[in-house]
Amino acid sequence: MLAEIKGLNEECGVFGIWGHENAAQITYYGLHSLQHRGQEGAGIVVAHQGMLQGHKGLGLVTEVFSNGELQALKGLAAIGHVRYSTAGGGGYENVQPLLFRSQTGSIALAHNGNLVNAMDLKLQLEEQGSIFQTTSDTEVFAHLIRRSHAPTFKEQIKEALTYVEGAFAFLLLTETALYVALDPHGFRPLSIGRLGNAYVIASETCAFDVVGATYEREVEPGELIIISAEGMRSERFAQAQSRSICSMEYIYFARPDSNVDGINIHTARKNLGKRLALEAPVEADIVTGVPDSSISVAIGYAEATGIPYELGLIKNRYVGRTFIQPSQSLREQGVKMKLSPVRGVVAGKRVVMVDDSIVRGTTSKRIVAMLREAGATEVHVRISSPPITHPCFYGIDTSTKEELIASKHTVEEIRQIIGADSLAFLSQEGLLEAIGRSPHLPLRGQCMACFTGNYPTDIHKARSLFMATK
């Protein structure tokens, strides 16, 4: 469903390219394809003739680069970023890529994820004299690099990577190289492609299709990739841990035309719908999905049950970002502006409304009410994920347990709150089996922390490695 109105948002998307004469323009199109991963801000930094220069701003990619800024960005290498704020909050200063200049050279940094020990590291760095210009956890990584006494820049990056914990997919651009790093658990997707002789890096493979690149492979957990005039080489900064790719990438975040770690998102979501139909069938007249992420699930549910799939809800793609409205009443009006029921389809019908998740419950309640107002005689809600009972600390903006409706209410209580005739969530086992990752990996290589409370990393206390070695 729409990220702006449902309260479940991912931090960002990253894109990088090395060795193309139109690097900035390619990055622009790559970011446009990743716009669903963040709508608060966007930016691009290019490397040109021994210098880094960039432009960033608040808003969508098309808004940030609307007055000729793109044409001014010359160079053969670039990194870009689209952001939805989680750690550190919003504001222009937190829009990435972050660009740092010093006497020894400049670095630009783009980050997808969240560092769970950023606050502890920041306090340690400030005690030793560091001054921070943003409230983003990403800036911590730049300070760690600059404070390293390792003999080479590559080794400084590796040392810095040993201090940070949590989810991170880093792109780091200097005047002479592009560095790519993925955390040892591989929480976030990150892929490598080729565009002619150029190397391309993206959060999702859909960006490769948009720019005409060919998919090569995934970045491995714990891997550091260095791309320069000498080509691409791979090293390790840490041993890969048990893979823990975010389950919400398959359920909600990624575009249907992307492949995440070899699995097509549309196919995975159809399988979620089929499994949901097996676990929670219901007598109804039509099945409809909440746009956009639940459409594939609804199709799978309809195919498995034989109930016709209908376009019962329409998304208005030309409404501004109403999620910034300050009051609940205005946010609910934003839901009505973003989504509209198709009265001629749902009136007089028993409707199965398929959605990907319920976070706080307010949006589900509003959609159920809209369907009833449009004449639906029954509304049965089916959710293609288990109940979200625990906050995420790896880059999704559910930071407190209290804001999660499933953490304090039973399924029956949630059904009553949202006003549905029936409500069912997909089981944890059903989720893992339907997505279809390797059965030989623990939890099939997925992070299930928001459903179980079992976090792959220590989220409460950072190790004092930095203090111990300085």
TrEMBL record:
Pathway: Purine metabolism; IMP biosynthesis via de novo pathway; N(1)-(5-phospho-D-ribosyl)glycinamide from 5-phospho-alpha-D-ribose 1-diphosphate: step 1/2
UniProt cofactor note: Binds 1 [4Fe-4S] cluster per subunit.
Positions with a binding annotation for Mg(2+): 293, 355-356
CDD domains in UniProt: GPATase_N, PRTases_typeI
InterPro entries assigned to the protein according to its UniProt record, in alphabetical order: GATase_2_dom, Ntn_hydrolases_N, PRTase-like, PRTase_dom, PurF, PurF_N
An example molecular function term from Gene Ontology annotations: amidophosphoribosyltransferase activity
Entry's family note: In the C-terminal section; belongs to the purine/pyrimidine phosphoribosyltransferase family.
Role: Catalyzes the formation of phosphoribosylamine from phosphoribosylpyrophosphate (PRPP) and glutamine.
Record-given protein name: Amidophosphoribosyltransferase
